[in-house]
Amino acid sequence: METTRETTRDLDRMLDWGWLPLFLLLVAVSLLIRPLMPVDETRYLGVAWEMWQSGSWVVPLLNGEPYSHKPPLLFWLIHAGWAVFGVNEITPRLVAPGFALGSLFLVRAIAARMVPQRPLVSRLTPWILAGTIYWAGFATLTLFDQLVVFFVLLGVFGLLELGRGWRRGWLWLFLGTALGALAKGPFALIYLVPLTVAAPWWAGVSLSWRWFAKAGTVGFLGSAVALGWALWAASLGGPAYAEAILWGQVAGRTVHAFAHAQPLYYYLWVLPLLFLPWTLMLPLIWRRSIEWPEPYKGRLTAMLLAWVGFPCFVLSLASGKLPHYLLPMLPALALATAVGLANRDDHSLRGWPAAILWLALGLAVVMLPWVGGSALMDMLPAWVSLLGLALVVLAVWPGWLWVARSLVRRVIIITATTMVGLLLLQLALAPLRPAFDAGAFATRLGDWQRAGHSIAFVGKYRDEYNFTGRLVRPLVVLSDDEGSVAGFCARAPEGIVVQRLHSPALPAAALAATRFRSKHDVALPCSVFVGAS
């Protein structure tokens, strides 16, 4: 009997906090194994470095020019880390995982307030979110989206606090709106506006004109913070930059996408993929959700419509689409899934769909080194197949979901499998690091630049080397034609030209070279081009 009580206490502790060490381990392994990924992570650290080095705290810079694609909050947070610890690579890479970790705590608090009479819901929700493959993999990337997720959750938390009669909820709603807009512009409002408008039907606030007037005022004040930055930056960055941040970015992504154009139905098939492995089990989980007692069923339905349905509709109308635009929806789906699980008996969750998914991924990793025909896949050694076999064993191990005696154990095992599976995948792809880590090459560029050499890049340059090489001046960007390169070398005979080549055969005159994905970046002295002309 005593052993049973101890086992129950151990399971309770695991359910409350077991996801935390798993998440921290995933982040630590990612920092150790994975380099800064071009072009997004290297670009954003490059922008932060240029702002830091030039003292341009209001206007972000990309290779010396105003960068209009993103607001400055992520860059400011990177600067805060550098101000305390000095310029380094680690603290910037902890920003997004830190917000992802905060989201796990926030979504647990939200679930506790949504369904207070079922504590199991709030205890399961962070496990489900952490066990979502896309969310866990995305949590370690230095991008803006985990910041947006956190601030949307902060706004949701504030609305629920207001529903409980706590006036401090206005502060959380204001901060979620203001900082969410500073993190990624109007994007956060696509989620927070419908959630705020629908709050009387899901958050428990009173339905009255007074509520809408107060909420509208707080939303306006929060948006005004980001608008204040935009107007300030526009006055400093020049007319073209002002037009871009005040109108061009929104219009370009919404009406005629300058990038990432996708059909109207794109998100209908993307969203289920983003919620794997739970998507495979949703018919089993939600089958009896209609039996959930009121008022929770109505509140949950209204929340999902405001948090997932309306934003998905709005984002589908926009021309430019990317999967991570849906990332703020995953906490809502995790909460709804936890509600469905808490309404079922202990043996109703069947984990075999997740097992099949990891079995397929494991077999794919087993085959990767033997596929060939790709400049990247050819870099994978044979031992990577052993890690694929480890994934297979993880999926088919007899002690897995089939013998877990309770729903709680099965949820824990599914999430643990996601975390361990992602760790194994990172280890399996570690041999590809030389194709993405150009640290030594960037350092050479920085050394040459500080020694007085002018450096030019042929083609489209996206700050791939500015941070890693600690460049002190922008690179000269040249078009891909002989006249442009010859003109640069005539003006700077001591200059160095970086070209991105498809062929692995490097010129004999190359001063340095590095892999860049499946291509090669090569540094050549201007004497090569002057002699050729």
Fold and architecture overview:
Strand 1 (61-62) and strand 2 (65-66) form a beta hairpin. The protein has 3 domains: 68-342, no CATH class; 352-433; 439-532, no CATH class. It has helices spanning 2-17, 19-33, 40-54, 73-85, 90-114, 119-130, 133-138, 145-163, 169-184, 189-197, 199-202, 209-237, 239-254, 266-274, 282-286, 296-317, 330-342, 352-371, 384-396, 407-429, 439-450, 482-491, 526-532, and strands spanning 61-62, 65-66, 455-458, 476-478, 496-501, 512-516, 519-525. The strands form 2 sheets. Strands 4-3-5-7-6 form a 5-stranded mixed sheet, with helices on both faces. A two-stranded antiparallel ribbon has the order 1-2. It is mostly helical and 533 residues long. The relative contact order is 0.10.
Question: What's the structural blueprint in terms of helices and strands?
Answer:
Elements: H1 2-17, H2 19-33, H3 40-54, E1 61-62, E2 65-66, H4 73-85, H5 90-114, H6 119-130, H7 133-138, H8 145-163, H9 169-184, H10 189-197, H11 199-202, H12 209-237, H13 239-254, H14 266-274, H15 282-286, H16 296-317, H17 330-342, H18 352-371, H19 384-396, H20 407-429, H21 439-450, E3 455-458, E4 476-478, H22 482-491, E5 496-501, E6 512-516, E7 519-525, H23 526-532
Parallel strand pairs: 3-4, 3-5
Antiparallel strand pairs: 1-2, 5-7, 6-7
Helix pairs in contact: 2-5, 2-20, 3-4, 5-6, 5-8, 6-17, 6-20, 8-9, 8-10, 9-12, 10-16, 12-13, 18-19, 18-20, 19-20, 22-23
